[in-house]
Structures are given as C-alpha cells and as structure tokens.
Amino acid sequence: MKKLIVIILLCCTHVAFGQTGVRVSLNNLVSVTFPAKPVISKPDSNTTVYSINRNGAFYTVTVEDLSKKAYLHNNVDSLLHFYDGLYKSQIKAQGGTLAYKKRMAINDDVAIEFAYTLNAKASVPDTRFQQSVYIDNTLVSFAFWTFKDKLKANAADKDIFFNSIVDPSEPAPPTPYQPEIKAPADSIAVKTPAPQTVSKATESRFGYSVGYLLGAAIFTAFIIGMLILIKRNSRKDKNE
Fold it and tell me: Which segments cross the bilayer (predicted)?
C-alpha cells in the first residue's frame, strides 16, 4: 500500500512539473511558455527560431529583427495592412486554405491570429494556428501546428501555449487554462475602407508589401526550425 502511495505521488509530481513548462523571454519584448525547453536556431543574423514538438504538435516561435530591413508606421491602419500581407503570403506559399483570421492584442499591441489548413502529406501537420505581433521594429510570430485527427486532443495545449504570451515583466499565467476548443466567432468582417489621404494610402500599401515579403520568410524560418528539431531528436534517439 505504501509503495502504491509513493508511486501515485511521484506521478502527480511529474504531471505538475510538466504543466509548469519553460518560460522564454523573447528579446525582452514578450514571453511565452513552452511545454519543455525549446531548440533554438538562427537561420540568419536577424532571425531566431524556438521550436519543440510534443504529442503530435509543433510549437514554433520566430523573432525577426526588422530594424535593418524596413520601417513600419506604428499606427493601427498600417499594421493591419501589414498583417494582411503577412498571412496571405504565408498561406499562398504553402497552398493552404484560410480557416479564420481575427484582429487581437498582445500586451496592448495590435496583433493578428489566423488559422489555415493544408492538403499535406500524412507526415506533415495539416492544421496550423498562428499569432503575430509587431513590437519595436521586431516581428514575433507564435505557431502551433498539429494534425487534423489530433486537433481535438491538442486543443487545450494550443490554448495553454497562446494564453501564456505575456509581457516578460509580468508573472506567467497559471496552467492549465480552461480550453476553448471552438474556433473564434469574432472573425474579421470585410468592411468598406474609409477614404484615405495619399500619405495613409501609401503607408497602407507599404505595410502590406512588407508583410507579404515577410510571410514567405517566416514560413521558411518555421520549416528550418522544424527540420533542425527533427534532426536533433533523431540523433538523440540513436544515442539512447
């Protein structure tokens, strides 16, 4: 009986530790909690990728320093056009289909969340969720990729991951969170744009163009991070 109690206590301790996760500060701009320590890679001098896979899902975060590449006017209209270019480029590069998109806020900064599906091979996650935010000339993107047949089982993990995104100076939110399995109902409605001055129209076009160019680059960074992660996991399995 005593042995049984000890085993139960050990199991409970393991579960609680697993729920805590590993909190990572991203350039002191925002922090996020991974289920375990992520693999870090740098595809180039301006990009850092954090990635990990758990239970049939890939967690990936990219931090893209744009200070030497482009300057965006930090107003809502320009940023929304930037995000439009971003998500459209990413989905087009992968031949995906948009499931939903919505405007949101991360630490009071204007951000976007979107999801899309792919007709992909069985070995590649075909259901993908992403949140992106532009802060201080830096684009931070959080991605959760899973398989359609595992979507319901992984829905709570997705919510825990996205809900853990906070200001690095704030305490990490407790886990686990109450899962929200349903897709957001507040999708962005298509509205007739208000008349713009020439300067605002130029800002919008520029923002969209920058976002569109970055979309494909971010997708490439996601793939590089995933490949490095798979390679390291393969080496680890061989050594064990």
Answer: 206-230
Q: Are 156 and 172 in contact (CB under 8 A)?
A: no
Say how far apart CA 187 and CA 102 lie, in whole Å. Answer: 5
Q: How remote is the C-alpha of 160 from its chain's centroid? A: 12
Q: Model-level pTM? A: 0.73
Considering its fold, how many domains does the chain have in total?
1
CATH of the domain at 166: 3.40.1000.10
Residue 13 domain-assigned? no
> Which strand (E) or helix (H) includes residue 208?
helix 198-239
* 125 closest CA partner among 146, 98, 153: 146
Q: What is the per-residue pLDDT for 69?
A: 67
**219 occurs within a structural domain:** yes
Handedness of CA 164, 69, 80, 90 (dihedral sign): negative
Residue 157: name the closest of 134, 119, 185, 127 by CA.
127
Q: Stretch 18-36: mean pLDDT, rounded?
A: 86
> Is the CA virtual torsion 131, 135, 139, 140 positive or negative?
negative
